[in-house]
Amino acid sequence: MALPFLIVAIDGGAAAGKSTTARALSARFNLLHVDTGSYYRAVTHELLRLGVATDDPGAIAAAAAGLALGTRVEGRNARIEIAGRGVEEADLRGPAVNAAVSHFAAVPAVRAALLAYQRDQARVAREGGFAGLVMEGRDIGTVIFPEADFRFFLHADPAERARRRAAEGQQDSIAERDRLDSSRKASPLQCPAGATDLDSTHLSLEEVVARVSAPIAARFAAGA
Ligand code: DC
Asked: What is the CATH number of the domain that holds 120?
């Protein structure tokens, strides 16, 4: 029986459980895992390295247009490279990037620089022999893959999300990033029309994964 190639979109605010869920789906169904937040973080790290200010749209657009983006697949994870270089996890998740990423991500030229690159991850997944891809972010179900086979929107109340980030040993301005990400004009964070909206405040991550996995398992069982 031929298996379908499935695209799964997971959107939601900071620390809503997207990455844990996406990793679990990736492992269970052999999907390429694409964390687009890490792409915006890598671009932010590069713009900061180039000395671009968060409030200088002209310089941001010029620098964003010149980025040479590539992908290295590590296990089931698609990692972005800029000019042939990856960025260390510690730098991606450090305070400088946390503070700047939502500002750069609100600039249309930055989103435009990543648009085709993100869609092209479906080709990377096919060529890598994956059964599909699971992509997490803020605008995957609305802008990047509105035709995805499955679209989920995760949320949880802010206190619970802050607790999860602290348990990961991270300091993060979750509420401020969500405010900026939801209120920007370009591809704001919002639940895609028709997506499955899941409140994980009172669910364990295992329960979230179980709910999200069930329809995907059924689709694979049904075949192409
Ligand atoms: O998922 P994350 O918290 O690592 O994402 C970091 C930032 O990147 C987030 O605050 C907004 C931006 N982002 C975005 O604008 N669009 C996406 N698809 C993913 C992330």
From this structure: 3.40.50.300
Q: Could you tell me the residue range of the domain that residue 76 belongs to?
A: 6-222
This prediction has a pTM of: 0.95
| Minimum-distance ligand 1 atom for the alpha carbon of 140 | 18
Q: Rounded to whole angstroms, how far apart are CA atoms 136 and 86?
A: 19
Q: Quick check: is 111 in a domain?
A: yes
Q: Distance between CA 197 and CA 193 in Å, rounded?
A: 10
The minimum-distance atom of ligand 1 relative to the CA of 172 is: 3
- CA-nearest residue for atom 9, ligand 1, is 102
The structural domain count of the chain equals 1
Assigned domain for 128 exists: yes
Is residue 1 included in any domain, yes or no? no
Any domain includes 23: yes
Q: What per-residue string of b and e applies to 59-75 under the rule 16 or more CB within 10 Å gives b?
A: ebbebbeebebebebee
Residue nearest atom 5 in ligand 1 by C-alpha distance: 37
- Per-residue pLDDT of 24-68, as tens digits, reads 999 999 999 999 999 999 999 999 999 999 999 999 999 999 999
181 ligand 1 Cβ < 6 A: yes
Give mean pLDDT, residues 83-91: 94
